[in-house]
Write a structure and sequence with these properties.
This protein has 17 helices and eight strands. An eight-stranded parallel sheet has the order 1-2-3-4-5-6-7-8. α4 runs parallel beside α6. The longest helix has 17 residues.
């Protein structure tokens, strides 16, 4: 299960180079090693610069379908049964001129490929705070409505520079709430706890992306816990972008102790030098989490997904079936010995 990962941020470095060459785009590096050096982020604005440059390498519906299919392969290889993928359709429309219907159909073909692998992916179309353009945000909401008809689109999102503010989009999120369209909103990453408060008030979000700086406000922690607002935690990303100096300093342990609903995610895996599997390994080791806690966090993701009760129940059953029982773990250990 994964609830916070960006499609454009999931593109393999090899594919970024292939798309740049195919579409005549110049990048600061021409090798995989060079791209990885470029991905050593100085700060959040540098990350945005890299993210936009990578996004500009997507110039056709075929390019878009390719990255969805490769993303599906990666998730399937990690046995990720269900993923909600954030995708910035407005940026692709802006830089590539691909109309939403063509984007939608490419996403749909990619999703059908994922389903052939036995997994499901659904998309969260996000508004970019930096734009501060209500007309664009309104258009994104229209695309969400369109994509919800067959389950392709799961929710509306908002991302970008948290310091740009969210209030300008209030009418868009009020409309989404009135129609029962769920919202997942980035906040509390590069800006403090106040950005989470504003974002919750304006967007009526059912989930907060990151939210790791909630620990700066004890009253906010109580609100998150009492309202059952899940936080989509992306530990390695937070370290790469300088929110914390290292994983040991991350607020994840404190948030768990406070009883906040937590899920584990990878954000922009190749850019951050990680995978969802690696995130779990690092978190388990750093915070000495038990298998029972790992199971609980996985079930948090199921419970927090934008799915109906029947689909959630089916996912729970599937996970229970695949999750190693204590007896199976003992037998495996004995075989190794």
């Amino acid at each position: 299960m994964e609830l916070h990962v960006h499609l454009e941020g999931s593109i393999r470095p090899e594919t970024v180079l292939e798309l740049a060459k195919r579409n005549g785009k110049t990048l600061p590096a021409t090798t995989v090693e060079g791209l990885r050096d470029w991905y050593q982020f100085k700060d959040f604005p540098h990350f945005v610069e890299v993210y936009v440059a990578v996004s500009q390498c997507i110039q056709s519906a075929e390019d878009l379908e390719l990255i969805v299919r490769e993303f599906a392969d990666s998730q399937a290889a990690q046995n990720v049964l269900y993923t909600e993928v954030t995708y910035t359709a407005s940026t692709i429309a802006k830089y590539a001129g691909i109309p939403w219907p063509q984007q939608r159909d490419a996403l749909r073909r990619g999703r059908e490929y994922a389903q052939s692998l036995g997994i499901d992916i659904r998309f969260i179309l996000d508004i970019v705070r930096d734009d501060q353009d209500v007309a664009i945000a309104t258009e994104v909401l229209d695309w969400v409505r369109d994509g919800q008809s067959d389950g392709l689109v799961a929710a509306l999102g908002i991302a970008g520079m948290e310091t740009a503010g969210t209030a300008v989009y209030a009418e868009v999120f009020d409309a989404a709430q009135a129609e029962g369209i769920p919202v997942a909103a980035h906040a509390g990453e590069t800006a403090g706890a106040e950005s989470i408060r504003e974002t919750l008030a304006v967007t009526h979000a059912r989930r907060i992306g990151h939210g790791v700086r909630a620990v700066e406000d004890a009253h906010l922690i109580v609100q998150l816990r009492n309202d059952g607002i899940p936080l989509e935690i992306c530990p390695t990303s937070n370290v790469c972008l300088g929110v914390f100096p290292d994983l040991e300093s991350h607020s994840l342990g404190r948030l768990l102790d406070e009883g906040v609903v937590i899920t584990i995610n990878s954000d922009d895996p190749p850019m951050m030098g990680t995978t969802l599997t690696e995130e779990w390994r690092r978190v388990m080791e750093t915070f000495e989490l038990s298998e029972d806690m790992a199971y609980s966090l996985t079930m948090n993701a199921v419970n927090s997904a934008f799915l109906d009760l029947e689909k959630k129940a089916a996912l729970r059953d599937q996970i229970r079936t695949q999750w190693p029982s204590p007896e199976e773990e003992t037998e495996s250990d004995e075989e190794q010995n």
